[in-house]
Amino acid sequence: MRALKILFVSPEVEPFVKVGGLADMVGALPKELAKLGHDVRIVCPAYGSIKRTGEWRALDQPLGVDVGPATQWARTWQTVLPGTTVPVYFLENHDYFARPEVYTGPWGAHEDNDLRFAFLCRGALALCQQLDWIPDVVHGHDWTTGLLPVMLNTTLRATPLGRTATVYTIHNLEHQGYSPVRVVDFARLPLGEFQRDGIESGGMVNLMKAGLYHSTKLTTVSPTYAKEIVTPDGGFGLDAALRFRAGDLVGIVNGIDDESWDPAHDRALPAPYSAADLHGKALCKAALQRHFHLDVNPVVPLFGVVSRLAAQKGLDLLAEALPAIMEKMEIQLVLLGNGDGRMENTFQWAAQAYRGRCGAQIGFDGKLARLIQGGSDCFVMPSRSEPCGLTQMYAMRYGTLPIVRATGGLVDTVQNFEEGQARGTGFVFHAATAGALADTLGWACATYYDRPQEFAGLQQRAMAQDFSWRQSAAQYVELYRWAVEHRTGTYPA
Ligand code: ADP
Ligand code: GLC
User: Fold this and answer.
1) Is the pTM of this model over 0.85?
2) 449 CA distance to ligand 2 middle (Å)
3) Are 475 and 468 in contact (CB under 8 A)?
4) What does the alpha-carbon distance between residue 308 and residue 22 come to, in Å, rounded to a whole number?
5) 23 lines ligand 1 (CB under 6 A)
6) Mapping DSSP to helix (H, G, I), strand (E, B) and coil, where does residue 333 land?
7) What distance in angstroms lies between residue 20's CA and the mean position of ligand 1's atoms?
8) Same fold, 5-255+469-488 and 279-463
9) Which ligand ends up closest to the CA of 392?
10) What is the signed CA dihedral for 8, 107, 388, 303, rounded to 10 degrees?
11) CATH fold of 5-255+469-488, please?
C-alpha cells in the first residue's frame, strides 16, 4: 500500500513543549507512523519557552501567512523528533508566540488565543504550500486546530491543498475555544460559515465545533470516551453536533511511547528495574521518600499522584477523603501537580499536617513525574472525566497499580482486580465520591499488607500489558485512508 503524507498540527509536542498528555501523544504517534513508512511531519508554534532540543535550523525563506488585513510573517525553524527523522517545524512570530505560555498567562487565558491559533492553522497550511509538500491528510488536535478543516473546505478548496483530507482528534471536549466573531475575518473565512450548523455557538465562534463540523473524519482518544461524548451528560453541549457526525467518529485508545517510558532504561530513575527483577523499584521508592522528606520505610505502601490540578481530575475527592485516609490507614502519599490555586494550597497544607507521611510539590517537573511513577506502589487517579489518560498506563508499565474511577479511557486501559481470580491490573471504583475513593484506597492498602502475593500478581500483569502505539497507529492509518478516499474519491491503496 502506498505511503501517506501526513501533517500533524498541534499546540504541544513532547519533548519541546508540554502542558499535558496531548504533547505525549503528538510526540509519540508520528514516530510509529514513520516506522510504518509514512512521511509524517509536525507543525507547532515556537513559544518563548520552547525547549530547543537537538539541532535547529531556520528555513531561508520567511513564511507569509494570510491572516488579518495584510500578510503577516513567521520564521520557520526545523528540527526532528529526537531519535527519528520526523521533521518538526516551529513557527516563530513575535506578536503571537513570543510569550512563554501555551494557553494561559498569569491573568488567565490569553485574550488573543483565537488569533494566535488561527495564525498557527493558516501558517501550517502556508508552510505546506511553500515547501510544495501537499499532504494527503492534515491531522489536527483539539480546539486550537479547529479552523484547519474550515480553511481547507472554503478559502483553500480550489488550491492543490483542497484535496487534502482532514482528521480531527478530540483530546478533551471540556475546552472548546470560544472566540469572538472577529476570528472569521482574521482567518479570511467566508462569513457564511458563521452559522449554527457550523462554527457558531451562542453568538460566538466555537473552534472545537468548527473542527467537528468540517473535518473529514473525527477521532477521540478512547472507545469509552467516544460513547460518552455523544450523550447529553458527556457532550459538554456538543453532543448533538457529535451525534450528527457519529458515523465519522472513532474512538482509538492512545498508546504510550514505551521506549521513553521504560523502567529498565529510564535515566530519571536512580535504579533501573523490570518485571523479572523488581529490586530497583525498592531503591526508587526510598529515593522518592527521601525527596519528599517522608519516613524511609520500605514496608509502608506509597501512593503517588502526578496531575494537572483541574476539576476534571477529581483530586478534590482525594482532598476530601484525606483526613480519614491518613487517620485510618498506614500509608504514605505524594503529589506532584499544578493548576487550581485552592487545590495547590490544600495539598501543601496536607503535607504540613501529615509531615513524614505526606508530601506535595507544586509545579511541573518531568523528572520527578517519572520518579513518582517508579517509586510508588499505587497511582491515584480519581478522574471525574478522562478522555484517555496516559499516567495510569505509565504507572502500570512501572509496576505501580492504578486506582482509577471508571470513566473514559480509564475503563479501556485498567482491568479491575478480581480477588482470588488472578485477574486485573488495578483498582477501579464507580461513584465520584470521597467515600468510594477512600474505600478503594483501603482495598488497595489491605491487598498490599494482607495478600502480598496477589499484589505482586497484579504488578506482574500490569507490567505485561502492551500499551505501545503499534495497534492504535495501524488504526489511525486505516482511518487516514478512509479519509483520503472520502475526500478524493480514490482509496489510496
Ligand atoms: P492530561 O493530558 O489530561 O493532563 P494525561 O494523563 O493524558 O492527562 O497526561 C498528562 C501528562 O502530563 C503525563 O505525561 C504526566 O506525566 C504529565 N504531567 C502532568 N502533570 C505534571 C506535572 N505537574 N509535572 C510533570 N508532568 C506532569
Ligand atoms: C487530554 C485528556 C487526556 C488524554 C490526553 C492525550 O489532555 O485530558 O485524558 O490522555 O489529552 O490524548
Assistant:
1) yes
2) 33
3) no
4) 13
5) no
6) strand
7) 5
8) yes
9) 1
10) 130
11) Rossmann fold (3.40.50)
Tell the residue nearest (CA) to atom 10 of ligand 2.
389
pLDDT value of position 310: 95
Could you tell me the distance, in angstroms and rounded to a whole number, from the CA of residue 2 to the centre of ligand 2? 31
* Residues 156, 133: Cα–Cα separation, whole Å: 15
Ligand 2 atom closest to Cα of 225?
9
Report which bound ligand comes closest to the CA of 409. Answer: 2
Pocket lining: 365 vs ligand 1, CB cutoff 6 Å: yes
pLDDT tens digits for 2-43?
999 999 999 999 999 999 999 999 999 999 999 999 999 999
β-bridge pairing 63-65 and 72-80 = antiparallel
What is the 421 CA–ligand 2 centroid distance (Å)?
A: 32
Closest CA to 464 of 388, 393, 416, 361: 393
Q: Which of 18, 173, 221 is the best mutation target for the ligand 2 pocket, counting ligand atoms within 8 Å of the beta carbon and taking the most?
A: 221
Centre of ligand 1 to C-alpha 95, Å, is 28
Q: Which residue is associated with the grid cell 487517579?
A: 381
The answer, yes or no, to whether any atom of ligand 1 lies below 6 A from the CB of 361, is: no
**344, 279 Cβ separation under 8 angstroms:** no
3-state secondary structure of 450: helix
Q: Is 78 helix (H, G, I), strand (E, B) or coil?
A: strand
Q: What's the pLDDT at 106?
A: 86
CATH code: domain 279-463 is 3.40.50.2000
Q: What percent of the chain has pLDDT over 70?
A: 100
* Cα 439 to ligand 2 centroid, rounded to whole Å: 26
CA distance 188 to 122: 10
Grid cell for residue 17: 513543549
Residue minimizing CA distance to atom 3 of ligand 2? 389
- DSSP letters along 91-108, please? EE-HHHH-SS-SSEETTE
What are the residue boundaries of the structural domains of the chain, listed by start?
Answer: 5-255+469-488, 279-463
What is residue 7's DSSP assignment?
E
Q: Going by CA atoms, what residue is nearest to atom 26 of ligand 1?
A: 366
Q: The cell 512521511 sits on which residue? A: 39
Give 331-340 pLDDT, tens digit per residue: 999 999 999 9
From the list 285, 197, 195, 283, the residue with the least C-alpha distance to 240 is 197
| Nearest ligand (C-alpha, residue 142) | 2
Helices and strands (H, E) in the chain, number of each type: 17, 21
